[in-house]
Amino acid sequence: MKKIKNNFTEKLIINKYFKTLSLNKKGTFNFENDAAYLNIPYKNCKFAVTTDAILENIDFFKNDNPKSIAQKITTVNLSDLYAMGAIPHSYLLNLCLPSYINNDWLKSFCNYLKKLQLKYNFYLLGGDLSKSDNLIISSTFFGYINKNINVYQNKVNLDDDIWVSGNIGESKIGLEIIRKNITVDKNLREYFINKYLYPKPCKLGPNLALYSSSIIDVSDGFIGDLKKMLNDKYGASISLNKIPLSIKAKKLIFDLKKIKLEHVLNSGDDYSLIIVSNKKYRKKIKNIANKNKVKISRVGKVVLEKGVQFDSYINNNIIKEYDHFS
Fold first, then answer.
1. What superfamily does domain 10-146 belong to in CATH?
2. Residue 139: which H helix or E strand, with range?
3. Which residues contact 25 (CB under 8 A, 6 or more apart)?
4. If you count DSSP H runs as helices and E runs as strands, how many of each does the chain have, helices first?
5. CA–CA separation, 55 and 101 (whole Å)
6. Is residue 325 over pLDDT 70?
7. For FRET with 318, which of 17, 76, 97, 118 sits at 20 to 30 Å CA-CA?
8. What is the pLDDT confidence band of residue 33, given thresholds at 50, 70 and 90?
9. Extents of the domains making up the chain
């Protein structure tokens, strides 16, 4: 067994912290097998699969609360499932643990993971542990969806409506506050840093799957992700005054001028959903969002001219969309 600190071994960590995350599901073998099996929960369903990783000093900082790190690895994967119209089922978790990880960290991390599992109704199938110089966490999530439903990222049509759930830019503002690029009062500081540390997935995807041409989650920035949907085939006409911003974000952007609007238009990790849909479904989409108590904004439409246009002009001051290799 690989020791990492405090005489930890893989077996000890699994037995003490992770077994409880199986929620006693039969296919996990109580983590005593090297593999697990999945049961599709309903007839006429298929599995959706997504995987993602978060890395120390890139997606989080060394001293971040382990609850925040648990929230991030969960949100980044759940958000992808919801954007596919899928309902969460289970997941695999791989951790590369540095020497500073201790009992308190593992306890807090696993307890919060369990809280999230119970909230969003999924469980841990198994995974792997290893030693590393930096903390690296990767996860593969499984969800299920009706076998006749296919939700695409880049299948849009001319004159389709473009919707956005929630607000955008708040995680970016929180990160800039942490980096000390923005100074604000205590209340604003706590609000935005919390948005950065504890992003939440939007659960509307499965409810909107039948009424959407395409859905994508805002992980790499609103404009960057919208461009993926347009797929260099169409363009988008967006009304700046319809971009969903919280009252607090508007205060920083327009009143205090702490950050420019164009900088939040392409900031990632908000995990809102961009929904492209035929305009005949406007009322249906609005009703579904209201029923689920989710803010949703119709910000524009798909147009023939390529590129993303804001109020009839193309804004050249928007920062480049996020790329993992840039």
1. PurM-like, N-terminal domain (3.30.1330.10)
2. strand 136-146
3. 90, 123, 125
4. 10, 10
5. 15
6. no
7. 76
8. confident
9. 10-146, 161-310
Indicate the burial class of 326 (C-beta count within 10 angstroms; 0-12, 13-18, 19 or more).
exposed
Q: Inform me whether the pLDDT recorded for 20 exceeds 50.
A: yes
The H or E element containing residue 248 is helix 247-250
Structure token pair of residue 79: 């958000």
DSSP single-letter state for residue 1: -
* SS3 per-residue string spanning 60-111: ECCCCCHHHHHHHHHHHHHHHHHHCCCEEEEEEEEEEECCCCCHHHHHHHHH
* The residue type at 99: S
**77 touches 141 (CB < 8 A):** yes
The closest alpha carbon to 95, from 107, 103, 106, belongs to: 106
CATH 2.60.120.200 fits 161-310, yes or no: no
**How far is the C-alpha of 253 from the C-alpha of 247, rounded, in Å?**
10
Could you read off the pLDDT of 261-304 as tens digits, one per residue?
988 998 888 999 999 999 999 999 999 999 999 999 999 999 99
Q: Which two tokens stand for residue 326?
A: 């840039």
How many CB atoms are located within 10 Å of the residue 39 CB? 9
Q: What is the pLDDT of residue 313?
A: 52
Q: Mean pLDDT over residues 146-175, rounded?
A: 96
CB 50 within 8 A of CB 80: yes
Length of the chain: 326
Give the sign of the dihedral formed by CA 111, CA 116, CA 117, CA 118: positive
Q: What is the pLDDT of residue 1?
A: 33
pLDDT at position 192 over 90: yes
Residue 262: what pLDDT?
A: 86
In three-state secondary structure terms, 59 is coil
Q: What phi and psi, each to the nearest 5 degrees, are found at residue 308?
A: -105, 115
Same fold for the pair 10-146 and 161-310? no
Whether this prediction's pTM lies above 0.85 is answered by yes
The structure tokens 């952007």 sit at 253
pLDDT tens, residue by residue, 231-263: 999 999 999 999 999 999 999 999 999 999 988
